[in-house]
Design brief:
The chain is α/β, with parallel strands linked by helices and 381 residues long. It contains 17 helices and nine strands.
């Protein structure tokens, strides 16, 4: 096994079916297509259909392996207006649904490479031929590991990167509970993506950027040829992870679920590094820093100082009333041996200063920055 193969594997040890279902709900809530991997006969299809039913979504199932490329790219038809790509019946049914729906592609990795290529546009853009399925449509798929199916094709890197990859764990305890007590529908998480405040999403993105600044090679790391393709780091997968982590913060899910979500998108190795970085930052609550700026002096590491100042800048951007408090933190930071990182944060704050807010005492330490921003008169003029 190569390093990249190990790095992009999907964790199963320790994850329960409940954890995996929670991760799947977060990913689908963010509008990200989910590919559930598991051995034949373990209930993948039943689980996805039960989840959709519990969520109140109509399910449209498509067995990918018995379709050809035109079933996803559309059948070219000559008309008076020119060539159009006519969508198949399953796509017309989906587009005609009232409310949310889930399109489920089963046996996706036994579809031919040409069919898989046609499927890419469907899961990325929500279009089949010339038909747009609509924003209320979500996508999920299921596949057996290649070791369990000699007819399986390797997923191409572009198609693999369009899905979030989860492994379906099977344990005796999960099986016994369902076998003896009946297979219950999944318990839904309390998820409302529309309720995520801008500050939460901005903070997730700032911390993600801070991490990748320390590991720039992880911005994009395409797996080696021959590796079994699952989640891997790319600009697309990092952006999707930011949206999912914002939802995870709002839903207050466990660390195991967060690891599953991150691994599903950027691979296990990158996910583990990223989450360890967040734990090791040990940052104070930005609201505490805004109330007690002197607490900034307790931060000794440069990465902590950078992340903390990113947090207060994000807070000021989300709530202009906190602008003066955020600038006071920068003033304290400049006096605590972190003038460079403080100046960078002060510069960003100067760009978003509300016109009605006065500069706090001590602002002179950033006189040049404020002058360049037009917030102070240039003493030399």
């Amino acid at each position: 096994m190569t390093t990249t193969q190990h790095r992009n594997s999907v964790p199963t040890a320790g994850a329960t079916q409940a954890d995996t279902l929670a991760a799947m709900q977060i990913l689908l809530a963010a509008g990200i297509p989910v590919l559930l991997w598991g051995d034949p006969g373990t209930g993948k299809t039943h689980t996805i259909e039960a989840f959709a039913r519990q969520a109140g979504w109509r399910t449209v199932s498509v067995i990918a392996s018995i379709h050809d490329p035109t079933d996803f790219a559309g059948l070219p038809m000559r008309t008076a207006e020119g060539v159009v790509f006519e969508p198949p019946a399953w796509a017309r049914r989906t587009a005609g649904c009232d409310g949310a729906s889930l399109v489920f592609f089963d046996e996706v990795n036994t579809a031919t490479p040409a069919t898989q290529n046609a499927l890419m546009r469907v899961v990325l853009e929500g279009r089949v031929g010339d038909l747009e399925l609509g924003d209320s449509v979500r996508f999920a798929a299921a596949a057996n590991p290649p070791s369990q199916n000699s007819a399986a094709w390797d997923l191409s890197a572009p198609l693999a990167n369009r899905f979030a990859h989860l492994s379906w764990p099977v344990s005796f305890e999960d099986w016994k509970a369902g076998y003896l007590g009946g297979w219950p529908d999944p318990d839904p998480l309390d998820i409302d993506p529309g309720a995520i405040d801008p500050y939460t999403n901005e903070m997730v993105r700032l911390l993600q950027t801070s991490f990748l600044a320390t590991r720039p090679a992880l911005v994009c790391e395409v797996p080696d040829n021959g590796a079994e393709l699952r989640g891997w780091p790319s600009p697309r997968s990092w952006e999707r992870l930011a949206d999912c982590m914002s939802i995870a913060d709002t839903a207050d899910v466990s660390g195991e679920v967060r690891l599953l979500v991150a691994s599903a998108l950027v691979g296990e190795g990158a996910a583990a590094e990223y989450l360890a970085y967040l734990r090791n930052l040990d940052l104070p609550d930005p609201k505490d820093l805004l109330t007690y700026p002197a607490k900034f002096g307790e931060l000794q590491r440069t990465d902590q100082q950078l992340a903390a100042l990113d947090a207060v800048v994000a807070a000021a951007a989300a709530d202009p009333k906190s602008w003066s408090d955020a600038f006071r933190v920068c003033i304290v930071a400049a006096g605590c041996g972190a003038p460079d990182v403080a100046a960078s944060a002060a510069m960003r704050l100067a760009e978003i200063k509300p016109t009605s807010v006065k500069l706090p005492a001590g602002h002179e330490v950033f006189a040049q920055i404020l002058t360049d921003a037009g917030l102070l008169e240039d003493p030399d003029t």
